[in-house]
Structure formats: C-alpha cells, structure tokens
Write a structure and sequence with these properties.
Radius of gyration: 33 Å
Shape: rod-shaped
Order of helices and strands: HHH
Number of strands: 0
Number of helices: 3
Number of domains: 1
Strand content: under 5%
Structural class: mainly alpha
Largest sheet: none
Length: 99
C-alpha cells in the first residue's frame, strides 16, 4: 500500500515537472516529519507540505517580480514648485530715513 502511494506521488511530481516543483521538496520534508510525529502520517504530511511549500514559493516569486518591476520603472523627476507671487517686490534691507 505504501509503495503504491509513493510511486503515485513520484509520478505526479515527475508529471508536474521539475521547474514547477520549486518549494515542494522543502515543504515535503517538513510536512513528512510533522506528519510522522503527529501519528505516523508521513506521506499525507509530505503531500500537504509539498503543496504548501509550492504555494509559498510561488507567492515569493510574484513579490520579487513586482519589486523588480517597480525598481525598473523610471521615477519622475521632482522639480521644486515655484513660490507663489504676492505682487509685491521682494523686501530689501531697511533704509534709514534721510536727515
């Protein structure tokens, strides 16, 4: 029974492709250990860990791509805004009255 499950999982992984298995191996190891500790359900834990690990890796890739796109886009140059004109000439130094 266990060998047929293992063979089926191996076939699914091979059919899924190596490039798409990013995060699966790490998740499967963690899930397998957790499943074994939780009551000898290592295979079920490995499958669940593979799925979770793959999804987390996918989210991380999307975040990195979005960050790279944001960094690649040119930022508009910020120019200082002109000071509003009040209509009065600029104040000069005070002039002492003539005597």
């Amino acid at each position: 029974m266990k060998s047929s499950i293992v063979l089926m999982l191996a076939g699914l992984l091979l059919a899924h492709g190596v490039a798409n298995a990013k995060g699966c191996v790490k998740g499967a190891v963690v899930g397998g250990v957790a499943g074994h500790v939780a009551g000898h359900h290592a295979v079920a834990g490995a499958v669940a860990g593979c799925v979770v690990g793959h999804e987390l890796a996918k989210k991380q890739d999307q975040q990195q791509k979005a960050k790279a796109q944001a960094a690649a886009q040119p930022q508009p140059a910020v120019q200082p805004s002109p000071q509003p004109s009040t209509g009065n000439p600029p104040a000069s130094a005070p002039v002492a009255p003539a005597r």
